[in-house]
Amino acid sequence: APYNPAQPANAQYPALAQALTHSNLDKCTPRLAAAIAKHQPAHPAFAVHKAQALHASGKSREAITYYQQALAKDPNYLPALRNLGATQFRLNDLSAARTTLEKAVSLHPKDSLSWLELARLLHTQRQLPEALNAARKATASEPELVEAYKTLAAIQTDSGDRSAAEQSLTAALGQQPDEVEVRTSLANLQSSTNPTAAEQGYLAALRLS
After folding, report:
1. Are 153 and 168 in contact, with CB atoms under 8 Å apart?
2. Are 134 and 143 in contact, with CB atoms under 8 Å apart?
3. Scanning 120, 153, 155, 200, which has its CA 20 to 30 A from the CA of 47?
């Protein structure tokens, strides 16, 4: 059946593909390719699941081809845009990744994960003001997203705003109090300004380790 982005997909096909990606990856990818050809070749979800299986198998460059196939079917398909940009970033194709992720957040401005990937990319490129903006968009879109606060704090630290970084890490702990990495990072920041709080933070991290 032709893919209509305004209508929900038949759930059995994406569900089957998603289940297959979690085991037997060597067998999974050809089965997904056969499913794409046999069942619903116009639906982008199949191509995305195939790409994810390839990525999990360490075949990231091959995965890009399938993300691009998904976008050929639906240029606005968020899972394909976000994952393509993230994969390009991991492969150090920073220019292509930035273009892809900027398109993702332009089309889907409330998608916290796309903003998060873009923030990380911009941080890597040392585009700190732009990275700060993207990280703040991520936390605003999903206030429970601990990784967004961690990224925001890292960018704020590199920008010289250690006080703001402490606030971001404190916000992260408010969402996930047992996060050892966040407690350690916060203690590191506090070590020069508030040794007592830093000591308490280190001890709390040790107890949670």
Report:
1. yes
2. no
3. 120
